[in-house]
Amino acid sequence: MALPLASVQLYSLAAQFSADMNGSLDKLAAIGLKNVEAFDFVRRPAEIRAALDRSGLASPTGHAPLLSDELWTPDGSIPTPAQEVVFEAAAEIGMKTVIDPMVPAERWLTEDGVKDIAERLNSASEKAKEFGLKVGYHNHAQEFVASFEGQTAYERFLTLIDPSVEIELDLFWALAGQQDVVGLVEHLGDQLTAIHVKDGVVPASNPFAPEAPAFDSTSLDQRHAGEGDVPTIEALKAATNVKYAVIEYDNAPGDVFADVENSYRFLIDGGFAR
Question: Which residues are in the Xylose isomerase-like TIM barrel domain (predicted)?
Fold first, then answer.
């Protein structure tokens, strides 16, 4: 397998990016990054494309809601954009894969819920082909709460999605869901095309379980890649088709640009990404 491209999920620096898009991207480019993973791009594709071009960066992957009827925002829930609108924006930016970043925990608790998620993703995959795009799914830990006949909800989901659907595995959240992360990478095989490189002290219990307190990302003790509980090196070595190693912090431990640079150096200097 060719080394994956190093990238960073821009949600890690959401505040900085919103305050100064050009300046933030320039700082990432100065670190050595050539790729990012955009978020909240549907309402401003031209602006983001211009900023990326100015900084010499590309966004081959991006996060946008595809599988929910409503999108939660700090200002309240709003209807999700039509898939055509999402894919038009992604194509304008130059993306290759649009990844749904999160489906609410309660929808993963029943077999019908899991089936609905998979059917929506398969339908989105067909629509994306009209725009020359692919779709994917990014996990948290709620996908590993329920089990059906010995399969986690996530494992059941994998049996229902079309092979054209790509998987982006968040290593930290899979471990928080008490999964064998390396074994999961091996199980996913070539369908796994992106990995979220995220590390830290994993919560003792699944924070998305129904009995858990309301989740707040500021409670997470996250660390630089290679400095926490996540078997990042072993997972990357087990992958067979990963194209993107995407750095992400839900709760950056310090200055986010220094934190991103630290994880970038871990990937590049270790020979795990290019």
Answer: 26-252
Write the pLDDT tens digit of every residue in 11-36.
999 999 999 999 999 999 999 999 99
Name the residue among 144, 135, 150 with its Cα closest to residue 184: 144
Pick out the chain residues at pLDDT < 50: none
Choose among 272, 269, 257: nearest CA to 30.
257
pLDDT in tens, 122-162: 999 999 999 999 999 999 999 999 999 999 999 999 999 99
Q: How far apart, in Å, are the Cα atoms of 181 and each of 117, 229, 234?
A: 22, 11, 9
pTM, entire model: 0.97
- Say how far apart CA 120 and CA 114 lie, in whole Å: 10
DSSP bridge partners of 110 = none
Token pair for residue 140?
């948290």
- Contact by Cβ (8 Å): 226, 17: no
**d(C-alpha 37, C-alpha 20), whole Å:** 17
| DSSP strand pairing (97-100 vs 58-63) | parallel
Q: How far, in Å, CA of 182 to CA of 235, rounded?
A: 5
DSSP state of 104: -
Alpha-carbon distance of 24 to 19, in angstroms, equals: 9
Contacts of 93 (CB under 8 A, 6+ apart): 38, 41, 45, 48, 49, 52, 59, 62
Instruction: For residue 145, give Cα distances in angstroms to 26, 106, 107, 177, 253.
Output: 40, 10, 11, 7, 27
pLDDT the model gives residue 118: 98
Tokens (6 digits) for 199: 């590390």
